[in-house]
């Protein structure tokens, strides 16, 4: 395993702002796992080594406030799209590759880093190993049809956050409710942050010029927004 890519992944994981105690536990465990020198990538299907990296990508339509999930054939659950990182592949590159292979579209990142991290034992037709899942968030359009991989999915559907939270967790990834709650907190904090920036810009416009930084929060601001909820 390439030491440079391992260090890049370690840095990405260390930068994640946890939303709750369970995510903090998963992050800490993942950091220890990476530092242990264990193989991070799946080198043989379906489960060698029995713990390995997966890149999930949640596609969000921010205008319609909808989230795309796929009806996964092997897992027999509604899941985000995604796939296993190839040996020595950057997890963001995995997303860029998988979104083309699985949904025939291009990756437009709505959030630059890893937004969420989970560890979960697999179920369904490939049960028995542990996926360390790095969740990325992409921007999509719920009004544009997708050409999905018929070998991977029975279909796909756009859900509102409320519809996902109302769906029994047994039909979903076991951590999907937690992801949605984290995304709601982040979206709410980003909106308030943008409103404040716009307000401050209007106040300052009569004096020195002010640059509108955009709605993206720093890691410190994200952490504070989760702590306040």
Automatic annotation (TrEMBL):
Species the sequence originates in = Candidatus Staskawiczbacteria bacterium RIFCSPHIGHO2_02_FULL_34_9
Q: Which Pfam families match?
A: NUDIX
The source's superkingdom equals Bacteria
- GO MF annotations, alphabetized: bis(5'-nucleosyl)-tetraphosphatase (asymmetrical) activity
Describe the location of the Nudix hydrolase domain by residue ranges: 50-186
Spell out the Gene3D superfamilies in the cross-references: Nucleoside Triphosphate Pyrophosphohydrolase (3.90.79.10)
Q: Does the keyword Hydrolase apply?
A: yes
Task: From the UniProt record, give one GO term of the biological process aspect.
Answer: ATP biosynthetic process
What protein am I looking at? Nudix hydrolase domain-containing protein
């Amino acid at each position: 395993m390439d030491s440079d890519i391992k260090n890049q992944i370690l840095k990405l994981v260390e930068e994640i702002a946890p939303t709750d105690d369970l995510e903090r536990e998963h992050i800490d465990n993942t950091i220890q796992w990476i530092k242990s020198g264990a193989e991070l990538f799946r080198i043989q299907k379906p489960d060698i080594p029995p713990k390995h990296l997966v890149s999930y990508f949640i596609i969000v339509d921010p205008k319609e406030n909808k989230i795309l999930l796929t009806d996964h054939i092997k897992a027999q659950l509604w899941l985000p799209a995604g796939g296993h990182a190839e040996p020595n592949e950057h997890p963001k590159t995995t997303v860029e590759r998988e979104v083309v292979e699985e949904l025939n579209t291009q990756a437009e990142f709505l959030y630059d880093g890893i937004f969420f991290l989970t560890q979960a034992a697999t179920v369904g037709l490939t049960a028995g190993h542990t996926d360390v899942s790095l969740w990325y968030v992409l921007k999509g359009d719920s009004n544009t049809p997708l050409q999905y991989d018929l070998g991977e999915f029975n279909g796909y559907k756009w859900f509102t956050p409320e519809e996902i939270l109302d769906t029994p967790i047994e039909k979903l990834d076991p951590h999907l409710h937690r992801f949605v709650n984290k995304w709601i907190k982040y979206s709410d904090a980003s909106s308030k942050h943008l409103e404040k920036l716009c307000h401050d810009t209007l106040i300052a416009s009569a004096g020195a010029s002010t640059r509108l930084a955009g709605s993206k929060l720093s890691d410190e601001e994200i952490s504070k927004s989760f702590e306040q909820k």
